[in-house]
Amino acid sequence: MKYKLIALDVDGTLLNDNHELTPATAETIKKIAEQGTEIVLCTGRAPGSSIPFMKQIGLDGYIITHNGAATVNIQTLEVVHEFELNPLALTPYLDYCRENGVHFDVNTTFALYVQGAAGLSQEALDLYKQFLVVPKELPRWADLSEPIVKVTLTGQKDEMDQVHAELSKWDNSEFTILRSGDFFIDITHKDSSKGAALQKLAEKRGITADNVMAIGNYYNDISMLTYAGLSIAMDNSPLEVKAAAKEVTASNNEEGVRLALEKHCLEQSLL
């Protein structure tokens, strides 16, 4: 079996636009895992909002979360690796958000914090609920007991386009400023990416890049697509993402993940 490790993005890739994992896709992934292939979700989500999909399929192993900032063992919840952010260096970014009315949240590996959590609008609460998250009140930096791994800025697409353009002009030597969706901008450690985390996990498992497959749909997936021996972009991906991949499959609403896996993994095992 050529592909020993398969990395799957979640939103816009594994899930359809209703944030659903279809039964047929889940069954295909389960069959491939039963052949001995290791499946890892590689997502911008936190562990709490991605582990349920692993369990729904019946998978063990690891998840790469927060766009590569934290890798977690789903059985033990052990943090295998995380990229910690410098809180003091984050302060200008949070000040910018406050001054310009940009919503932001601060993430440790397992928790999400929002300033004024008790006063969040129902619209904001519904958005967090889609990602299986309950925000907590943001404390002082000194009162955070876990490392910060990600800050996410959220807003309408045109607003995020403008914010991303402005922040890209800053001295971002400590951070990666990354569009993780039309409505999201993530601030992570400069060395943090899905590709870097996937490479670390593959090396830990003794797997070379040639034996890794990755499927994704957005800019935050490009690093893992360029690392993997076989990279597949969803049809709903931007052109730059498609250009970074070796193949393009159907969209997330057309079970593109299932079709790609059947083509490259399931069928070859039955020959």
From TrEMBL:
UniProt xrefs under Gene3D superfamilies: 3.30.1240.10, HAD superfamily/HAD-like (3.40.50.1000)
PROSITE patterns per record: COF_1
Gene Ontology CC: cytosol
Alphabetical list of InterPro entries matching this protein: Cof, HAD-like_sf, HAD-SF_hydro_IIB, HAD_sf
GO MF term set: magnesium ion binding; phosphatase activity
Taxonomic superkingdom: Bacteria
Record-given protein name: HAD family phosphatase
UniProt source species: Paenibacillus lentus
